[in-house]
Design goal:
Helix content is 74%, strand content 3%. It is mostly helical.
Amino acid sequence: MGDKGIKNELVDRWIIEPSRAFMNNSATSGILLFSSALLALIISNSAWAPQYHQLWTYQFSIGFDEYVISKDLHHWINDGLMAVFFFVVGLELKREIIGGELSSIRSAVLPIAAAVGGMFLPALIYLIFNPEGATSDGWGIPMATDIAFSLGVLYLLGDRVPVSLKIFLTALAIADDLGAVLVIAFFYSSDINFLSLGTGAVFLALLWVANAIGVRNTVFYALVGIGGLWLAFLMSGVHATIAAVLAAFAIPARTKVKENYFADHMERLVARFKEADPNNVRTLTKEQLNVLQDIRSYSKKALTPLQRLEDNMHPLVAFVIMPVFAFSNSGVTLSSDFISQLTSTVALGVMAGLLIGKVIGVVGITHLVMKFTSIQLPEGMNRLHLWGVGFLAAVGFTMSLFISGLAFDQEYLIDQAKLGIIAASIIASVAGYFLIKKAGKNQPSLE
């Protein structure tokens, strides 16, 4: 092997492979998300606090002539970048419903029931603290689970966690995401412009027709989804992130070639590549190049556009969009009356909703389903694991912060909600971590 080959091998071993492992580690995105929020909290309580808050007020406009949309940077992040986040959530939802943990009714009953219990009880508890007035609008804040953060905590435990628990929490969080999307659509959208909404419906119908007739070009779906559907919803009063979820459900989830045909054809192509005469230089022969192009073409046809998009967009969402969102939304300037902020009815309602309502809702409904049906916990999970899952489901970080911005107009209420979310998410993640760790150690006696 020449010097160049040795260098390439060292680059792969010491840079490319560790970077890929870092990006693929589910804990990494959760750690980055928390770090971004912590950095925002530090800066917003430092000498740079005025610059931090002013940054999000800069105005950006898109359009031409009289057709211009102008919003500040904070709104572009929450309405634009987060639409990409919700698009990936929509892709995950569709994949799980078609062929994942939500496709089988029996395997989906427990996590869906847990998700439902973990949405209604937190909202009810929040309303006990805030029964009326402007603060009551925040009832949706403690309903949500942050799938990236909760799975990040779970993956920190490594091999101590049974696979069945990871699947259960993932299915619960995805069902929870669907519930959060519906709550945003029906309760946190206002001043509906039915002309714009009707225009969005036309673009959505166009996407579904394209799917039905076999259009698989993702550029087409991006142009119609962003330039048509998302823009129409942005102007309609229905939150634009809903358009992203609807667009995701219109993405084709069928392969162009069947698995057995693909496998047979690939064997023939690989055989052709082996038989091709090499030219003993770095570049390929024309025949080798043609074979490789055929392999690439058939590999693309064997992938569904839905899974290809989800796989390609996940790093962008996990390592760019969610940290940017956390950094722009977690900056709370703690005043001298910090204790009164943390003990306000909004903060207490959010914390009680997440730490009490979410946990009891998830665990309680699961126990009721197990008591009155033949469905039991998946193999490998025990009751202590379930309590740990309940606490991890109470990590409401990203989605809760997002809904708090929709629920309140007053900045002081948003700050109170943020404090409650951050405090509850930290407590829930620590409690969930240690409960599941203990459950793993005590597995034989609990069984």
